[in-house]
Amino acid sequence: MTTFVLVHGAWGGAHTWRSVRPLLRTAGHAVFTPALTGIGERSHLVSPQVGLTTHVDDVANQIFYEGLDDIVLLGFSYGGMVITGALEHVGDRVRELVYLDAFVPDDGRSVVDLGGFDAGGPPGIGADWSIPPRVRTFDDPAEAAFAEPRRTPQPARTFTEPVRLARPLETLGIGLTYVKATRDARVSDRPDPFWEAADRVRDHPSWRYREIDSNHMVPQNRPAELAEVLFSLG
Amino acid sequence: MTTFVLVHGAWGGAHTWRSVRPLLRTAGHAVFTPALTGIGERSHLVSPQVGLTTHVDDVANQIFYEGLDDIVLLGFSYGGMVITGALEHVGDRVRELVYLDAFVPDDGRSVVDLGGFDAGGPPGIGADWSIPPRVRTFDDPAEAAFAEPRRTPQPARTFTEPVRLARPLETLGIGLTYVKATRDARVSDRPDPFWEAADRVRDHPSWRYREIDSNHMVPQNRPAELAEVLFSLG
Amino acid sequence: MTTFVLVHGAWGGAHTWRSVRPLLRTAGHAVFTPALTGIGERSHLVSPQVGLTTHVDDVANQIFYEGLDDIVLLGFSYGGMVITGALEHVGDRVRELVYLDAFVPDDGRSVVDLGGFDAGGPPGIGADWSIPPRVRTFDDPAEAAFAEPRRTPQPARTFTEPVRLARPLETLGIGLTYVKATRDARVSDRPDPFWEAADRVRDHPSWRYREIDSNHMVPQNRPAELAEVLFSLG
């Protein structure tokens, strides 16, 4: 029995995992899917004050309060920022980190640094602190009808706040896996952080590298393939 | 020397009073202009959680922490809701209430009840918790250029949360003044809460009733006339 | 006529300035005293999420929304962190910076870094995110009776979050003044950030250095002397 903690991405919510949870639970595993503050089911708590630190606390406190240990901690997309920041607090409770088509930040980096996003500005007259959802593609029209209305704006501070990571990931003694969704072609006119992360880790001896033939929305479009990858981590 | 506490309206901010403050201070009075959470200069603190109670606390806590007493407490427009709710906490520190083209709510009433507003709904998919600014008219183009970009969305809970008022205003032993801006014609296709308030108090023996020949934006458009009314309250 | 923006310290509030404001206003100056979120009159907004960034936004947004320019921006004690961080947003609106017995941080430094504080910990079971007020001494018993009950706990994130300062203070083309309260002896068993700041700037050609014979609580204990220093800045 493995304890999985699955962290969703920007503009998402815990419902991102609704097709993945039953696959893992039926196989006998424990699955926790923290809902990040200010988006999805926690959108009633949104504020310009919500930042990456808030989301790190969301994940760390679910782990603390549920008393979880020996965790496989997965971050999807922006969730890669969150699981990286959570290591400061719960690193000793994590057995394996899984970055699923995700940011793999070094210390002090933010989504804006890595992703070429224009995030909302600083305080000021007419300051825009909320970033509308990016268009995403769901293979199943029924899933699209479910997921699209549930995509919510993302508070900009989650993209501008830098992550803290005391030591490089490869020195922590935690297993490292990167899973790339390969159906999205690499973009060339701006940074492509998820392909750049793949380049960084593909041949690195500290990392396992896996691919899934899907666009970015793996949790909704390829839940069974994702579950297979997770089972294979042992 | 009188202590004035001036409470701004919806979509506004403490800067509403920038032309009024110097007139009162030059005449030797103390002037406090609390900034309501989530709008104007406090827009970085906005959240769906911000409601009428938050604003009542904003005003009551400024009065408590500054140690103010024997106050002339003025509410402009939506500020009438706020000063009414503040009486529960600081009623014994208020000498005179001034409603400036404002809501004059009975216990248990909200802006939505009184004003015919469609406020944002309860939580839900796509819930809209923020109400865009209404268009307002400033007589001076320079003031318009200053004020219009500073109008911010108003969190809906400030309009849906009912006010608490333990006893009718007329029984509190506090002076009562209503100031109507008379240049805005009464609307007939929906409730007109500021004219309805004028009707209620115009001939009431407990109230003083004054008029200023202006549209609704008296603090910006008629600061000198407003100061004269305030000086006349003694 | 000068525009003063006075930023209070930890465990304080805008009421810190109640004896200073009238001295400056009577002399014809404009005075703004932003209330920092989560303490003093804004203690009803306290939360573990409140950090240095929140306070920087409090000050920057008051300056933006009031349309202030050519400012003398003063930070008292912890307020030195806040005015330093505000320069990122409003540096071009500041004529003179005044640090009053205050932190003078370099880029990336926090109160915990500078001050030898034990701040509250990270998220976790029983996490302590609130720092009780330090004991302070007020010369006048009446002032003590007023001020002491108004001292509120300080959210720890204001002490742990590092400040951002793109370029050293001395290169910004803004006047720099440090005012040391000299009656508190330097402590030797832990860092003494306010004396260390005095050492840094005392003979620096970019700084003016002044002393006031008082303990740390200059705004309450020496308002007239403080006003004289401010008048002397021209």
General description of the model:
The structure is a homotrimer of 234-residue chains. Chain A is of the alpha/beta class. In chain A, 31% of the residues lie in helices and 16% in strands. Chain A contains 9 helices and 8 strands. In chain A, strand 7, helix 7 (193-201) and strand 8 (207-212) form a beta-alpha-beta unit. In chain A, helix 2 (52-66) crosses helix 3 (79-90). Chain A is globular. The model of chain A has no long low-confidence stretch (mean pLDDT 95). Chains in contact: A-B, A-C, B-C. Chain B binds chain C through residues 13-15, 18, 25, 35, 37, 40-45, 54, 57-58, 61-62, 64-67, 146, 150, and chain C through 13-15, 18, 25, 35, 37, 40-45, 54, 57-58, 61-62, 64-67, 146, 150.
Short description:
Three copies of one chain form a homotrimer. Chain A has helices spanning 21-26, 52-66, 79-90, 111-115, 141-147, 157-160, 193-201, 218-221, 223-232, and strands at 3-7, 30-32, 71-76, 94-100, 130-131, 154-155, 175-181, 207-212.
* Number of DSSP helical runs of chain A: 9
| Helix-strand topology string of chain A | EHEHEHEHEHEHEHEHH
The value of Rg of chain A in angstroms is 17 Å
* Beta-strand proportion of chain A: 15-25%
* General form of chain A: globular
Find the count of extended strands of chain A (DSSP E, 2+ residues).
8
Class from secondary-structure proportions of chain A: alpha/beta
What is the CA-CA span between the terminal residues of chain A? 10 Å
What is the spatial order of strands in the main beta sheet of chain A? Answer: 2-1-3-4-7-8
Q: What is the average per-residue confidence, as pLDDT of chain A, rounded to a whole number?
A: 95
Largest interface: B-C, 24 and 24 residues
> What is the makeup of the main sheet of chain A?
6 strands, parallel
- Oligomeric description of these chains: homotrimer
The residue ranges of chain A in which pLDDT falls below 50 over 5 or more consecutive positions are none
Percent helix among the residues of chain A? 25-40%
